[in-house]
Amino acid sequence: MVGFVVVSHSKALAEETIRLALEMKYSEFPLVNGSGTEGDYFGSNPLIIKEAIEKAYTEEGVLIFVDLGSSVLNTQIAMDFLDRDEYKLENIKIADAPLVEGLIAAVAMNDTKATLEDILLELKEFKNFSKIND
Questions:
Q1: Angle at CA 70, nearest 5°, toward 62 and 64?
Q2: How do 92-94 and 31-33 pair as beta strands?
Q3: Quick one: pLDDT at residue 40?
Q4: Contact 111, 122 (CB under 8 A)
Q5: Is the pLDDT of residue 124 over 80?
Q6: What average pLDDT does the segment 48-69 reach?
Q7: Mean pLDDT across the stretch 16-31?
Q8: Averaged pLDDT, 121-133
Q9: What per-residue confidence (pLDDT) applies to 45?
């Protein structure tokens, strides 16, 4: 199964998002908080993110959910720090999806049959998901 990492500027926000997503978790796979900075200030830290990716890594891959712009940048930096002999970078992706809705959907569908590509394809639909039917 795919492992997941959540990268938010707020460690507490990420923890609550993970807690909510756990309600939909039916299989065993890593779901790691890679948010915050040293001293729990708002922001993101590439070294904390790198450690979270390493903890969440599975042979099927890691999908990383981010909140705001610098979380993306710091995640990309963290990926550059990974040992390329130990971690297949082509199996580590940043989800282009809303943090909360995307994580919940990905957690719900992550089982022994789902691949990283399957989950990414499903998440594409969330980019245009309307919460209100007019």
A1: 10
A2: unpaired
A3: 77
A4: no
A5: yes
A6: 97
A7: 96
A8: 83
A9: 97
Q: Is the dihedral of CA 54, 60, 67, 82 positive or negative?
A: positive
Provide the percentage of residues in the chain whose pLDDT is more than 70: 100
C-alpha to C-alpha distance for 85 and 11, rounded to whole angstroms: 30
CA-to-CA distance for 98 and 100, rounded, in angstroms? 6
Backbone dihedral region for residue 61 (phi beyond 0: left; psi -120 to 50: alpha; all else: beta) = left
Q: Is the pLDDT of residue 5 over 90?
A: yes
Q: Are 63 and 95 in contact (CB under 8 A)?
A: yes
Alpha-carbon span 43 to 53, nearest angstrom: 17
The whole-angstrom distance between residue 34's C-alpha and the CA centroid of its chain comes to 9
The residues pairing with 63 across neighbouring beta strands, listed in sequence order, are 4, 93
CA 22 remoteness from chain centre: 13
CB-based contacts of 28, cutoff 8 Å, min separation 6: 1
Tokens (6 digits) for 133: 């039917």
Q: Which residue's entry shows tokens 């002999």?
A: 85
Residue 86 CA to its chain's centroid (Å): 19
